[in-house]
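We modelled the chain as a single entity of 149 amino acids. Its sequence is:
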Amino acid sequence: MKRISNSGFSFSMGDFKLRAEKASLSIEDGRKVVKDGGVPNGYVDAEVGASGDIELDAAAMAILAEEAKTKGSWQEIEPIDLLFYAKGTQEEEKVEAFGCLLNLSDIVEYDPTSDKKATTKISYEVTSPDFVRINGVPYLAKDRTEGIV
């Protein structure tokens, strides 16, 4: 049976089909245990967040640069949805992150002795109350997002 590997993931950024050299998504869930007299007694909800990094090569950056040029600047690129997808013989994984605000972080990393392809790192933060879905299931409880427009 063919299993899912890291190299088996495809990645899309909104309507752009870009090849990412590397990409990540991390969720910070701030829920905390409540204690009475030092003994755990339930939990409380707290802030949540999601963020990650995307590394693109020069060809992929050229496509994104055209979007920045059309918008007028890099900062004027609207938050964009990200999709990470992989399929094995009997396995499938689909992770969606919504309303991702892009921030160029590592623009140039110059090393004249390196034989690796040059990449640009883009950091992002999830800004939408749709937040993250994993295999179609929302990460956030429905009552956390009700009433948010």
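As a brief sanity check on the tokenised model: The longest strand covers residues 92-106. The two ends are 44 Å apart (CA to CA).
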